[in-house]
Amino acid sequence: MYSTKQIGSKYSSGFKTYLTKEGKIISPFHDVPCFDGDYVNCINEIPRFEHGKFEINKNEIFNPIMQDVKKGKIRFIDNIFPFFGYPFNYGAIPQTWEDPTSLDDGCKTHGDNDPVDVIDIGTRRKSIGEVYKAKILGALALIDDNEADWKIIAIDVEDPVSGELNNIQDVEKHFPHLLKYVFRWFRDYKIPTGKPQNSFAFDGKYQEAELAKDVVKKAHESWKRLVKEGHQDICIENGTVKESGAYSTTPKKIAGEEMPDSELPDEIYHFSFV
Questions:
Q1: 186 domain residue, yes or no
Q2: Taken in order 96, 101, 106, 108, is the CA torsion positive or negative?
Q3: Whole-number average pLDDT of the chain
Q4: Which of 38, 51, 99, 143 is least surrounded by Cβ atoms within 10 Å, i.e. has the fewest?
Q5: Within a domain: residue 81?
Q6: What is the pLDDT of residues 164-186, one digit of tens each?
């Protein structure tokens, strides 16, 4: 249903991954439905074991996935023992927005102005821009620079063990120690850059699936306001949300020459955190 087109060289400021549908550029932020029945759709930004910090660009038209740039330099994640890059597939839930003008009830601080982050704990390494349907299992409430930055724990519904997982307790049962190491990674990943450990709401305890679903629902309602009213430099142009102030009746096609397919191989990675 969805595909991607990559432009520019990976690990450069000109690298962009556009999400497409039927050969037309769409926005991974605005044009992919948040919910699919009892599940959520997810946009993978960073494949497991990747070091480049890729994310949906909120400012550019149709919000391509790009490598983050800070002070003129593209950003990478340091290895922190025993991890190699990002130890999970890392992405975002479309049509969600952590509103920086609203106080998050659980975190007691304002949103971080981004889509809600999602961590896929499944067995397959995903590609940049891959869209998949996932089951919400729980959440971790990170406080990043005094902003609410929820991390939704989920698993691809096509994963072989998806049917066995329905809540955070099931994750601990089927993936012993994984949650402990996910918490440790988020707590410590900034230390190599000279920053202190990250802090968390709820004393760093994982929250249940129902609360995580409520976080997503509230962020979806915030996104509905965003595409109607806009916010600072966020590009809200889209081709599907008719009530939006930036709805386009003529979806734009990819310009330029055809780019080679550079998606990652569809391999299965079995791993253990024991």
A1: yes
A2: positive
A3: 91
A4: 38
A5: yes
A6: 999 999 999 999 999 999 999 99
